[in-house]
């Protein structure tokens, strides 16, 4: 049965001509280390539903093949760059996302898993990358997690158990990276880019129009107007302060900050779950930065509205204790990070939270419901609608007083 085209991204409905028998044979030869493998048949289809991702093009290939041992079938995920002219191609064309992700899958994450395994902690962070190339085009091929019964969460919030599973994976990888960075490891030297360094990203309409729309949105609700005075002075600096915070390790390193390997795009669509087990996806934006960064991102992009309101402190505590317990397990001998100092660093990086609440939250609420991110990235009218939705205003009714009560706007530079 043909897929319902409304459920998929338009640029993933038809596989490119190069996704052919020759390509799949090349992939299988490398994966199986068998030059005599034969491709019997293959079928391609879109790999993900609309709204699951934006920064790549993805296909699923189910390949039937034979070797001397018999006939087999394997489901693969093929990730590549957009070929159709348009916003996505312009946005991603000159970026460093593929070299970053290749390094993460082939060098960095296997090393982190190895260190944990040697300490008796068996952890798998992600699907196995079985093939990659940058010429004649940038392509990565992964084992498909769907046959292993992992699923992307769609059209519902993640449960507390699922959130904890994701935060535990993050805490464990960040603990190992913290130890390695303290030991001056060169493992992360290739990670010199992040979301803020994407070509033209800071000039995107999404970023340039969001804060003015946010202020206008506050003015439209009587109970929220009183918060305009806190945000108005930030309109010309909030994006730049967010950028400076993300790039801090590379450009303005501080002596006492807890620096770790950051995922860089740690949201609910970049995870797959089987029960409460979590696999992480998409390491295109990974970088070294403050341990506060991914967790603050998760507060707005992984937690649902109820968890933001009721479980914020509990989940941060859970993340931090998992982090320090992992440090102990892997034999870290340095000064142990403290919760008090970590909370101070979360507060110090509050521009991230201000930026996310005013810029990404309304648009991500739209994605969370299974809608296509291209709708608001490329459509100004749709973007405007999202800032005036009642659901967004309802969240601001408790998020903004919390910021005021915690002193978020005092001594901001």
TrEMBL record:
InterPro entries for the chain: CHK_kinase-like, EcKL, Kinase-like_dom_sf
SMART domains with a match to the protein in the record: CHK (SM00587)
Taxonomic superkingdom: Eukaryota
Coiled coil: none
Pfam families (alphabetical): EcKL (PF02958)
Xref: Gene3D superfamilies: 3.90.1200.10
Domain (CHK kinase-like) ranges: 140-329
Name of protein: CHK kinase-like domain-containing protein
UniProt source species: Drosophila rubida
């Amino acid at each position: 049965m043909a897929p319902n085209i409304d459920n998929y991204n338009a640029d993933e409905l038809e596989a490119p001509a190069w996704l052919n028998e020759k390509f799949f044979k090349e992939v299988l030869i490398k994966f199986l280390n068998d030059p005599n493998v034969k491709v019997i048949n293959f079928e391609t289809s879109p790999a993900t539903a609309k709204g699951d991702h934006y920064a790549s093009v993805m296909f699923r290939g189910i390949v039937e093949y034979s070797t001397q041992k018999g006939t087999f079938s394997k489901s693969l995920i093929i990730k590549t760059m957009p070929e159709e002219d348009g916003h996505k191609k312009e946005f991603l064309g000159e970026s460093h996302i593929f070299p970053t992700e290749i390094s993460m899958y082939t060098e960095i994450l296997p090393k982190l898993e190895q260190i944990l395994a040697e300490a008796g902690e068996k952890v798998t962070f992600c699907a196995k990358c079985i093939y990659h190339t940058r010429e004649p085009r940038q392509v990565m091929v992964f084992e498909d997690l769907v046959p292993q019964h992992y699923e992307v969460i769609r059209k519902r919030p993640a449960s507390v158990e699922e959130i904890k599973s994701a935060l535990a994976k993050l805490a464990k990888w960040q603990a190992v990276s913290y130890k390695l960075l303290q030991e001056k490891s060169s493992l992360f030297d290739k990670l010199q880019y992040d979301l803020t360094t994407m070509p033209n990203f800071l000039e995107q309409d999404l970023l340039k129009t969001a804060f003015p729309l946010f202020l206008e949105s506050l003015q439209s609700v009587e109970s929220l107007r009183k918060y305009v005075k806190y945000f108005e002075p930030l309109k010309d600096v909030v994006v730049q302060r967010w950028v400076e915070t993300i790039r801090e390790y590379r450009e303005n390193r501080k002596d006492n900050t807890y620096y770790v390997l950051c995922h860089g795009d740690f949201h609910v669509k970049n995870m797959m779950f089987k029960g409460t087990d979590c696999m992480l996806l998409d390491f295109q934006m990974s970088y070294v930065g403050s341990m506060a960064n991914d967790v603050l991102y998760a507060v707005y992009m992984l937690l649902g509205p109820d968890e933001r309101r009721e479980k914020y402190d509990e989940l941060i505590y859970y993340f931090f204790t998992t982090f320090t317990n992992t440090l102990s397990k892997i034999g870290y001998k340095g000064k142990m990070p403290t919760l008090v100092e970590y909370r101070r660093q979360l507060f110090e990086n509050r521009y991230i939270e201000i930026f996310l609440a005013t810029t990404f939250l309304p648009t991500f609420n739209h994605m969370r419901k299974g809608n296509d991110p291209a709708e608001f990235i490329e459509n100004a009218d749709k973007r405007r609608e999202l800032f005036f939705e009642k659901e967004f205003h309802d969240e601001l009714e408790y998020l903004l007083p919390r910021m005021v009560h915690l002193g978020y706007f005092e001594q901001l530079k």
